[in-house]
Amino acid sequence: MEITKFPITRLGLERMKNELEELKKERPNIIKAISDARDHGDLSENAEYHAAREKQSFIEGRIAYLGDKLSHAEVIDIDNFLGDTIAFGATVELCIDGNPDKKCIYTIVGEYEADVSKQLISVTSPLASTLIGKKVGDSVEVETPNGEKSYTVVNIEFK
To answer: Locate the Transcription elongation factor GreA/GreB N-terminal domain: which residues (predicted)?
Structure first.
């Protein structure tokens, strides 16, 4: 079975590694909380015990998930990217529906580091996949949950 690598930025990789380390540091605290809760007696009605076990389950699951993702990550180094064509790692400024007053800026990142609230969109998203290969001045049409939108590329940077 071939192991599939997925693209990630250097910053995205560092964020994943930092989260993994923080979760691993939390393990002893959870073990102590479970032990302390056990000391309170009847486990069937012990809310602290159940909460600590639930937190332990979440942390262990997240550690396994991040470990797996990190082992399959392929860092795409965008430091040397230049050019006028949108590619992985590009930060793009877009004009929405031809209105110069309606603009947005997104950075195209790996699937596991995407966060729309931080203007980080996955390379596999409909918008990003449509933008790949486009240049300043190009327009694209993308189907969104609110209907079709038109975007015009205003600026492309690799930072």
So the answer is: 7-75
